[in-house]
């Protein structure tokens, strides 16, 4: 009987050694398999009726440190975020350059300043005027290219979100399938080690895409959730969805509903995802890139307004200025009105030699200091009619686009010029107050310094984009209205589409909700949103069809001024360019101003007048009041300094992103190394195990051989 037990024990040893050899073979063959963990063969003594009868295989155990795996997945989420930001910031820095680069925006701002300085030295040199125009075009083209690249990057990030969401869905489906196989194998006492390896690798890959939390049930299946508790996989996987947009623009935001959400069923997960590459793409699309765009737009807008304000004071000479088209759009010129401050506007027709051909003042022709836009047109035409000896002359009009236009026939030998004066007769911009909604109470929503500047009759830089978008300044999320007022909305053909009542204690969010709740505004496709930017938020109002929009106030409480609501600067960097006729003919560049000759009592132009050229050059040396935009705070600084700050910021952020990514990669590698020490296959160890199982197999076989010999002897004895 003992010989039989010995044979059984030897047979079990032989079988167990074979299984041990199989486990070693599996480990060695998967030494380079990603996610594979070393399997340790576990055996135990087999006991029957209290006596040992050999050995049996207990199974294969995975060498896994679950705490370490959780750390790896947590850092994978952080690393995925950092990798995206490092990649994008590197591309942004390549585009923005450094302050000392000859191709940087700061350098081109300084180059434009130097061209105006050179023009001021010799305004008669046509080459200097051409250089100014070409330098201005170079600067505006660069701003436009940079803006377009930023928007392209936003769209690229949005497409990457769509791709990663698809990968998330594939991984969730994969994990769900593995869950089912693991549960089935576990219930039928089959090995689940390799399946669990594959599931662990899928979990790690998923963590690189988005931050997750998970736990394992006793059944063996893994349940996955977002960190906020939204279910992603429980019995069945949740399908995430996101459709990338096909185009975008500076004023379009996720907060404004212009980008699709990352949805899990009816839930919007966009703002809940805080880690992984998806979080990185969302941050670039909705925060980083829009902030840079806002800073570019602030630079472009301030540059445009400052140069235009000065250029509108001047007149080209010896070129005859006979054609003017304003850039301000009026949606109802018969109702919208202006009121002039103290002083007056000199209206002058001049001859080819610069001498005065006719002169009057705007207030004289208007019969007062205020009137509708149409009354301004009538006043100008009355002046032109007087010049023509009473023959009705309509050289001034409001064109089909709603712009004030002045067109003197080329057959005429005179040009037209204007000069704002204070009450003493000195040249000084006159204040022009604008009643945008034409209300009977004459509540003026805005004030512009300079008559020509108000209409944009002699702008240097132009932007043909309609004012379909309005922004407030950046305010705190806790901002509240302090008074009762009304916000009126007007569109072409209807100055009073709807009025929204604003009450004390209304927040930015409340005002946006009131606008969106107004059915008349909804029918007119006018929406509002609260956009996060910089240290606070903006109220953004959008006419979604791109129509010219007028936002005005129904009372004199100053709500709009307090909020800083005005046509948005968003997109200025993209659309701004040198006025078309000026770009084609640099002789239209204004270098001087109408001068009053006290001896003759007349106005005239001098070919050597460089006052406007010098004033435009001086703009670049002066401090400009920049509003808060993106991550750059409000304050006074020069244009070149602001441009340099913008570049310095991107350079600093790029360096920070690179450092974070490198540090995170080092940490991830360290954790991976530790995981390899715990779970990885060590060939030396496996070879040692191979020898042990080989010897065990040989010894068991020897026992079987010896036992067989003993049985043969017994058989011979019996015979």
Describe this structure in words.
With 719 residues, the protein is α+β, with helices and mostly antiparallel strands. The protein has three domains: 100 residues; 253 residues, no CATH class; 291 residues, no CATH class. Helix content is 46%, strand content 20%. The strands form eleven sheets. The protein has a four-stranded antiparallel beta sheet, covered by helices on one side. The longest helix has 62 residues.
Main attributes?
32 strands, 719 residues, 17 helices, 3 domains
Order of strands in the sheet with most strands? 3-4-5-6
Shape category:
elongated
The proportion of residues in beta strands is 15-25%
Number of strands: 32
Cα radius of gyration in angstroms: 39 Å
Low-confidence stretches: none
Q: Please, what is the average pLDDT?
A: 90
Biggest pleated-sheet summary: 4 strands, antiparallel
Total number of helices: 17
Query: Which class of secondary structure composition applies to the elements?
Result: alpha+beta
Count of domains: 3
**What share of residues is helical?**
40-55%
- What is the terminal-to-terminal distance? 19 Å
């Amino acid at each position: 009987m003992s010989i039989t037990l010995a044979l059984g024990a030897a047979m079990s040893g032989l079988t167990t050694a074979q299984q041990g050899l199989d486990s070693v073979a599996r480990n060695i063959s998967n030494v380079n398999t990603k996610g594979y963990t070393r399997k340790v063969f576990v055996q135990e003594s087999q006991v029957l009726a209290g006596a040992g009868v050999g050995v049996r295989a207990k199974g294969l155990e995975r060498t896994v440190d679950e705490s370490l795996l959780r750390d790896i997945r947590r850092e994978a989420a952080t690393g995925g975020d950092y990798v995206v930001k490092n990649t994008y910031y590197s591309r942004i820095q390549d585009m923005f350059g450094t302050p000392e680069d000859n191709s940087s925006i700061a350098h081109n701002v300084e180059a434009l300043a130097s061209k105006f300085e050179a023009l001021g030295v010799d305004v008669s040199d046509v080459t200097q005027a051409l250089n100014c125009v070409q330098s201005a075009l170079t600067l505006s083209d660069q701003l436009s290219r940079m803006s377009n690249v930023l928007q392209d990057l936003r769209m690229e990030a949005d497409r990457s979100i769509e791709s990663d969401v698809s990968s998330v869905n594939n991984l969730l489906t994969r994990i769900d399938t593995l869950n089912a196989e693991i549960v089935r194998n576990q219930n039928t006492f089959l090995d689940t080690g390799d399946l669990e390896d594959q599931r662990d690798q899928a979990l790690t890959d998923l963590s690189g895409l988005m931050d997750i939390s998970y736990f394992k049930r006793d059944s063996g299946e893994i349940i996955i959730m977002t960190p906020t508790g939204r279910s992603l996989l429980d019995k069945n996987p949740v399908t995430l969805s996101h459709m990338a947009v096909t185009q975008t623009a500076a004023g379009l935001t996720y907060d404004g509903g212009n980008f699709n959400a990352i949805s899990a069923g009816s839930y919007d997960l966009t703002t809940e995802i805080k880690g992984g590459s998806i979080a990185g793409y969302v941050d670039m699309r909705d925060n980083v890139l829009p902030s840079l765009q806002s800073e570019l737009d602030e630079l472009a807008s301030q540059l445009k307004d400052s140069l235009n304000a000065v250029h509108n004071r001047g007149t080209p000479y010896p070129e005859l200025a006979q054609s003017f088209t304003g850039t301000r759009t009026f949606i109802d010129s018969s109702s919208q009105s202006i009121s002039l401050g103290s002083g007056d506007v000199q209206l002058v027709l001049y001859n080819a030699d610069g001498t005065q051909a006719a002169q009057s003042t705007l207030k004289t022709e208007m019969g007062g200091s205020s009137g509708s836009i149409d009354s301004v047109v009538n006043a100008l035409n009355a002046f032109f009619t007087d010049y023509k000896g009473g023959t009705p002359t309509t050289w001034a009009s409001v064109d089909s686009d709603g712009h004030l236009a002045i067109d003197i026939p080329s057959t005429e030998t005179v040009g037209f010029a204007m000069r704002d004066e204070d009450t003493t007769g000195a040249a000084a911009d006159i204040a022009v107050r604008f009643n945008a909604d034409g209300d009977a109470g004459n509540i003026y929503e805005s004030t512009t310094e300079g008559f020509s500047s108000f209409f944009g009759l002699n702008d240097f830089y132009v932007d043909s984009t309609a004012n379909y978008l309005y922004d407030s300044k950046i305010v705190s999320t806790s901002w509240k209205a302090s008074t009762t007022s009304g916000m009126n909305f007007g569109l072409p053909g209807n100055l009073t589409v709807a009025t929204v009542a604003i009450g004390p204690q209304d927040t930015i969010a409340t005002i946006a909700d009131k606008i969106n709740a107004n059915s008349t505004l909804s029918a007119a496709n006018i929406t509002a949103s609260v956009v996060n930017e910089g240290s606070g938020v903006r109220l953004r109002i959008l006419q979604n069809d791109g129509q010219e929009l007028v936002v005005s106030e129904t009372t004199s409480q100053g709500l709009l001024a307090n909020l800083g609501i005005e046509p948005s600067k968003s997109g200025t960097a993209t659309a701004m360019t040198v006025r078309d006729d000026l770009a084609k003919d640099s002789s239209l560049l204004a270098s001087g101003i109408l001068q009053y000759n006290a001896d003759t009592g007349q106005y005239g132009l001098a070919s050597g007048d460089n006052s406007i050229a010098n004033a435009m050059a001086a703009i670049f040396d002066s401090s400009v009041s920049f509003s808060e935009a993106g991550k750059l705070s409000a304050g006074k600084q020069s244009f070149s300094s602001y441009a340099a700050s913008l570049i310095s910021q991107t350079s600093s952020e790029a360096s920070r992103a690179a450092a974070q990514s490198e540090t995170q990669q080092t940490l991830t590698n360290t954790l991976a190394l530790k995981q390899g020490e715990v779970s990885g296959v060590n060939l030396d160890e496996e070879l040692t195990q191979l020898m042990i199982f080989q010897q065990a197999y040989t010894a068991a076989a020897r026992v079987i051989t010896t036992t067989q010999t003993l049985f043969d002897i017994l058989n011979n004895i019996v015979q």
